[in-house]
Structure formats: structure tokens, C-alpha cells
Design a protein that fits this description.
Arc Repressor Mutant, subunit A; alpha+beta; OB fold (Dihydrolipoamide Acetyltransferase, E2P)
Length: 730
């Protein structure tokens, strides 16, 4: 076979950057000029002479080392090479983020070299001189963030491609014919990337699961779970193991616990809840104080370490609350039955019991395993009715059974007293700098087929706050009890807000006449609370709530306690939801270990578990948001002919984001579809400016829109701009 000749390069061609790249990719291997020429596919004399010249220059500059005569290595440490993470944009370019660099480095498309979003990479940084924005090139992909992707398959005669709806996934995935499996043309599939050959435009993969047809409800929900690597069901061996657990209440086990069965106890939960993992008990003491017990399902009694059930729970780390279903952390036999504190049933619990005076001060505390009996199950609406009316008869329209019923005088009195104490606790928290975000939560009324029939907003009222305050009290006191012993523990921590984000937020909210006080940490929290109160009920509330939440650090799990900024607590943990959060299970185990006199456990082991739990929580949150977005698009598909009043929630160079006021569905009006003028983006004003009229479309403006396109697969809404709210219909 004849050797393919290469054209000689143009005179003066510099191969320095390519040589550095080749040597960097094989940092421990020495290359001579012939090997580098072969890598560059150059075999003419002129090119080889240029390579020899460039090698000598790079060696003289101390960029590379002549390890032996004529053979060169990249210098072991270079200030231009960094490790960090890729943050893809939606435009096939990326930014490189590294703790070693003060600013993010732009990576053009042709310099990504097969790196994908959130991959850990090694990057060579150019343009580090003053006045020039740094750019970089990926030299090595150290660790893939993910290798499984969801997409739609396009099958050809001898191969297939899978394209994803993820705007940050800039390439499709090539599937050889023998790895298509049972997928059919147009199916939504889960694929695994197996390889990405150096010269291939696309990675090579195989179909590992067929999820269904695009647009079908179950397909799209399963696709959301698969996109984040979350399971849709339990492995059969885990279900079988769970079914064999002895869930009976025995006298032997009761004898080892504090017996709370004769103390008045009840639960308050959402009306559609299946798992009740917390209950409150109430008793008035002879000294005038109150004994209030926070009783939590004793999941760790059933969930034994070293079992396949515990391994599965740890891997999941959290239940996932999608718009139409719950993907539980524990099989149903535990989550909805054995561990669920259902009315008129004896249950094993782990409890925090407090003696509290009239001023909501904790006088005494006790932690340990208990057995309890729930006298009553309330929905929040029923408890709220008692708080508002002080009436002991729950009307049919409020009752979860649909029929009117009477509540005992003792339960009414307990509910009212605990509401009173909860309000004192809440007031104290706020005075100490806690921040309250009562962000509007969107909920859907679904029919039996899972189709959205309407939208409503979940609002927190006194009954919600009652439960919240006593759960916070238990979480705080458990963390404080162990924290002051200086033993390894799992904390829920929350750092101070990002000041740059707060300054950016100030720029936006100033347009609405609001401001943040930056003088000190306490002033920031007070002014944020005042802001939340001021915007409550106004058209810009959701926008400002969202901006405020984004300016906050993310709460996470850690063995390193830095306190919880948002709650203004020095010690805080998660103790109260072990049915749906694995960190709470670990907290129960550690608390019992220390109550039994155990020594401090290995910090590094638990920090690893904290990191995993925080990661899984983040994935679950993304899946939950995607499912809401999907249902919003599905809902708007049936309302294409209607006009909606919306508020501009974002402004970019390609258009405006609009949130519909009556249902919080958000979509985009693209700049090319706004026909009443020619608009350009004004970054300083967060506005689009009309070239002819000079009129602005800016954050917070109210406009009328109509649905142009509702894409279920991409979970995107596109709107047509109709007119400003003050303009009359022509």
C-alpha cells in the first residue's frame, strides 16, 4: 500500500502549541521529532525541520525538557496547566472553573477536545497577560461527570444516532448497529457512552434501556429520572428482603424503650401524604410547663447496616418527589406501613422530648428510643381550621374524609397551645437573623391518567409553621447536644450568601425601588426579610424570591460544622425525616451510638457519606424541577388559544423570559418574534430597547402573551408577544 503524502506546510508555520499539547497528553513519555511528526501527520522535510526548530525553542524557554538526546518531555509543573471542571454553555462553548484561578477561562468549541459538561479536566490556559481575557484548551479528560444520557434514537441502515434534549450536550451519540438493542425508530432511550475515539466527531455508545415513545407521560417521567441517574423502581432482591423484615411490635422491644403510648399524640401532614414520619405529643406538667415530644419514625431499627436494603437506601440517599409520584428511598412496606406513624397504631419511634415553659424556653430535654400511639391524623387544612376558629368540629369541606367530625377538647387545646409556642419560637428565630423564604410552590390537580386539570399554589400557614418550628427545635437541639461533645456528627450547614450575587441582585431589585443593607451579616438578613415581606403578593414576588434564593449558598451535609446562616443556628442537623432522607438515618444511628457511650466515629468516612448525600439531594431537586416544568408545558399545550398576562422574569440578547401570573408557567418570547419594533438588548438596564419607539421591555413589566409552541421533550415553552399590559387590544 502506497504511503499517503502530506503537502508541505507554508513557510514559517509554528507547531509550538501542538507540540506542547502532544507532550502534555502523555506527560511521562518522551518524544522525538519523528514521533511528533507522525502524531501531526506530517512527513515532509520542511515540516520536520520546523518541528526540530520548535522543540529547541521550547526547550530553551524551559517549557519542555530534553530528557535524552533528541527526546523531549513536558516540564512536570507548569503554571499554565490547571485541573478543574467544565461548565458548558448552551452554545457549544464552555467555561473552565478551577479553585486555582480567580476567573473562569473561556473554552472555544474546537478546544473542548471531547470534554462534556461537569467533567474534571486538565486545561492549558492561553492569554494570561494583562488586558486579555484568558482562553484555554482541554488537554485531558481526567474524569467523566456522567456517561449515561437520555435521548431520541434515529436509526439508519447500519448505525444510529441518539440526540439529547439537554442544551449543554453539544454532540449526538453514535450507536453501532449491533448495540441498538430493541430500540425502534424515534424511541426515547438511555444510552451509555463506551468510547470516544480521537478522530471521531461523536462518542460511541450502546442502548441500555428503551424508555418509550416521546411525549407519552410515563416515558417523559422515566426519562427525567434516567437523565439524573435516579432509579424508577427497586431491584426485586431489595423488595424481597424488605418484605421479610419482622415489623411486629413486641413486648421485649417495648421494654427497652420509653413508653409514650398513653401521652396525647397526633400527626399533621399534607392531605395526600402516605408516609407520616413525625408526630407531636403534648402534656401539661404540674409545674405549669409543657412536655412536648417530637417523635420520629425509628427507621434505623428496621434498616440494619450491611444489608442490601441499607445499601440501596444509601445509594438513593433521598426520596424524589416528582409532580405526579414519589420515588421512595425505602420500599413501601417500610415507608408507608411499618415506619409510617399512622393513626391508632403502635409504632417504634426515636424521640426528642422537651420541657418547655410559657415563653417557649427549653427547660429540660431527653433523647432516645420510644414507643408511641397516634390518637389522630390531621391534614394541614384541618389543623389550620382549629387554629383559626378554635372550633372542635371539622366541617365536611375541610375534612380529609369528606365528612364532618368532632375533635377531642384535649387535642384542640394542645393544638392551640403548640401554635402559640411555635409563634414565639419563630419570632425569636427571626429576631436572631433567620431568613424566611415563603416562595410560591406550584402544584397541579391531576386526573386519574396524570393529566393536569388545573394549577394551584401551596401556601404555608400557621399549621405548617407549627410543625416546622418543632421540627427545627428537634434538629437544632440534637445537633447541639452532640456538637458540644466535640464528636463526629452529620450537620446540615449553610454558608453566608455570595456577596457578588447579592450585588447583582441589588442591581435588579433597584428597578423596583428595593434595596439591601450590606453593612454587616445581621443587616443583610434583616433587609432580606424586610424585602420578602414587602414584595409579598406583588407581581414581582416570584422573580425577587428566586433571585434571593439564588444569591444564597446551597445548604449541604458535612461533618464540619459552620452553622446554618439561613436559620441563624450555630448547630443544626437533620433528625426528623429518616423515611425520606438517609442523612437522618445516619444521625439516628450516631445519636444512639453516643447515648450508649460510644467513642467518636471516623470523620473522613462520614464526610464521604455527607458528600454523596448532598450530591443525590441535588440530582433529586433537578429531577423535581424538571417534572414541574414538564407538567407546566403539558398544561399549556391545552391552552394555546388563550391570552395570558405575564411578568418579564428575565432579559437576554435573544429574547425575554415571561412568567404567567395566574399559573407561574415560564416561557420565552424570542426577540425576532416581537414584531412591534426592532429591539436590541441593553445589558445595563436589563431591557430590550425599541429602535424606533425607544420603548423598553424590562424586568418586571407586565405583558400579554399567547403560547406559540409547547415542547414536551425539551420541556420548553415559547410565547408570542401580543402587547404591553397598558396597551388596548387593537
Amino acid at each position: 500500500m502506497s504511503k499517503r503524502l502530506r503537502k508541505p506546510v507554508k513557510k514559517g508555520k509554528d507547531f509550538s502549541e501542538k507540540i506542547v499539547k502532544i507532550l502534555s497528553q502523555s506527560a511521562n513519555k518522551a518524544f522525538n521529532y519523528k514521533q511528533i511528526g507522525a502524531k501531526l501527520e506530517l512527513d515532509d522535510t520542511e515540516s520536520r525541520n520546523q518541528i526540530i526548530k520548535d522543540l529547541k525553542i521550547l526547550a530553551a524557554q524551559n517549557t519542555i525538557i530534553e530528557a535524552e538526546p533528541g527526546k523531549y518531555l513536558i516540564k512536570a509543573v507548569s503554571k499554565d496547566y490547571y485541573e478543574g471542571k467544565i461548565d458548558m454553555t448552551g452554545r457549544k462553548t464552555a467555561y473552565f472553573v478551577s479553585t486555582e484561578l480567580e476567573e473562569d477561562v473561556f473554552i472555544p468549541t474546537n478546544n473542548l477536545n471531547h470534554a462534556l459538561d461537569k467533567d474534571i479536566v486538565k486545561v492549558y490556559v492561553y492569554n494570561r497577560r494583562k488586558g486579555k481575557k484568558p482562553e484555554g484548551e482541554v488537554i485531558e479528560v481526567i474524569e467523566r461527570n456522567k456517561t449515561d444520557f437520555v435521548g431520541v434514537i434515529d436509526i439508519q441502515a447500519n448505525f444510529a444516532f441518539v440526540s439529547t434534549a439537554n442544551p449543554k450536550m453539544y454532540t449526538d451519540i453514535f450507536i453501532p448497529k449491533d448495540k441498538i438493542g430493541e430500540a425502534e425508530q424515534g424511541d426515547v432511550v438511555l444510552v451509555h457512552i463506551e468510547d470516544w475515539p480521537a478522530r471521531a466527531d461523536s462518542p460511541f455508545g450502546s442502548v441500555i434501556k428503551v424508555l418509550g415513545k416521546p411525549g407519552e407521560h410515563d416515558t417523559e417521567i422515566h426519562a427525567i429520572l434516567a437523565e439524573y441517574g435516579l432509579p424508577a423502581e427497586f431491584p426485586i432482591e431489595v423488595e424481597t428482603f424488605a418484605q421479610k423484615i419482622d415489623t411486629s411490635i413486641t413486648e421485649i422491644e417495648i421494654s427497652k424503650r420509653r413508653d409514650m403510648r398513653d401521652t396525647l399524640t397526633f400527626t399533621i401532614d399534607p392531605k395526600d401524604a402516605k408516609d407520616f414520619d413525625d408526630a407531636l405529643s403534648f402534656k401539661k406538667l404540674e409545674n405549669g410547663n409543657y412536655e412536648i415530644g417530637i417523635h420520629i419514625a425509628d427507621v434505623s431499627y428496621y434498616l440494619q447496616e450491611g444489608t442490601i436494603l441499607d445499601d440501596e437506601a444509601y445509594q438513593r440517599a433521598t426520596s424524589v418527589y416528582l409532580v405526579d409520584r414519589v420515588v421512595p428511598m425505602l420500599p413501601e412496606v417500610l415507608s408507608n406501613f411499618a415506619c409510617s406513624l399512622r393513626p391508632n397504631e403502635e409504632k417504634y419511634t426515636f424521640s426528642a422530648i422537651f420541657e418547655i415553659n410559657e415563653n417557649a424556653q427549653v427547660m429540660n430535654q431527653w433523647f432516645g428510643r420510644t414507643v408511641m400511639y397516634s390518637d389522630q391524623r390531621f391534614a394541614y387544612e384541618e389543623a389550620q381550621y382549629i387554629i383559626e376558629t378554635k372550633d372542635d368540629t371539622i366541617p365536611a369541606e375541610t375534612s380529609i374524609t369528606g365528612a364532618s367530625y368532632q375533635v377531642s377538647k384535649e387535642i384542640v387545646a394542645a393544638t392551640l397551645k403548640m401554635d402559640e409556642l411555635a409563634k414565639i419560637l419563630r419570632k425569636k428565630r427571626m429576631a436572631e437573623g433567620a431568613i424566611t423564604f415563603d416562595k410560591v410552590e406550584v402544584k397541579f390537580n391531576l386526573d386519574q391518567e396524570g393529566e393536569p386539570q388545573g394549577v394551584y399554589f401551596k401556601v404555608s400557614k400557621d399549621a405548617n409553621h407549627l410543625i416546622e418550628e418543632f421540627m427545627l427545635l428537634a434538629n437544632r437541639k440534637v445537633a447541639e447536644y452532640i456538637g458540644k461533645q466535640k464528636k463526629t456528627f452529620i450537620y446540615r450547614i449553610h454558608d453566608e450568601p455570595n456577596e457578588d450575587k447579592l450585588i447583582a441582585m441589588q442591581t435588579v431589585i433597584a428597578k423596583f425601588g428595593y434595596k439591601i443593607d450590606f453593612r454587616n451579616k445581621g443587616d443583610i438578613s434583616k433587609s432580606l426579610n424586610a424585602l420578602m415581606e414587602e414584595v409579598n403578593g406583588k407581581k414581582e414576588q416570584n422573580l425577587i424570591d428566586t433571585l434571593a434564593i439564588r444569591s444564597m449558598s446551597k445548604a449541604k451535609y458535612s461533618t464540619d460544622n459552620i452553622g446554618h446562616y439561613g436559620l441563624a443556628f450555630d448547630y443544626y442537623s437533620h433528625f426528623t425525616s429518616p423515611i425520606r432522607r438517609y442523612p437522618d438515618v445516619m444521625v439516628h444511628r450516631l445519636l444512639q451510638h453516643y447515648l450508649d457511650g460510644g467513642k467518636s466515629v471516623d470523620e473522613e468516612t462520614y464526610e464521604t457519606k455527607c458528600l454523596h448525600s448532598s450530591t443525590m439531594e441535588g440530582l433529586a431537586t433537578h429531577a423535581e424541577r424538571d417534572s414541574i416544568k414538564y407538567m407546566q408545558v403539558k398544561y399549556m399545550q391545552d391552552h394555546k388559544d388563550e391570552e395570558f398576562l405575564g411578568v418579564i422574569s428575565g432579559v437576554t440578547e435573544w429574547g425575554i423570559y415571561v412568567e404567567i401570573i395566574e399559573n407561574k408557567c415560564e416561557g420565552m418570547c424570542r426577540i425576532r418574534d416581537i414584531k412591534d419594533d426592532y429591539y436590541t438588548f441593553d445589558e445595563k438596564q436589563y431591557a430590550l430597547t425599541g429602535a424606533t419607539s425607544g420603548k423598553l421591555l424590562q424586568l418586571g413589566d407586565e405583558i400579554y402573551v399567547k403560547v406559540k409552541n409547547a415542547d414536551l421533550v425539551k420541556k420548553q415553552l415559547d410565547f408570542n408577544f401580543l402587547r404591553r399590559s397598558e396597551e388596548l387590544v387593537k
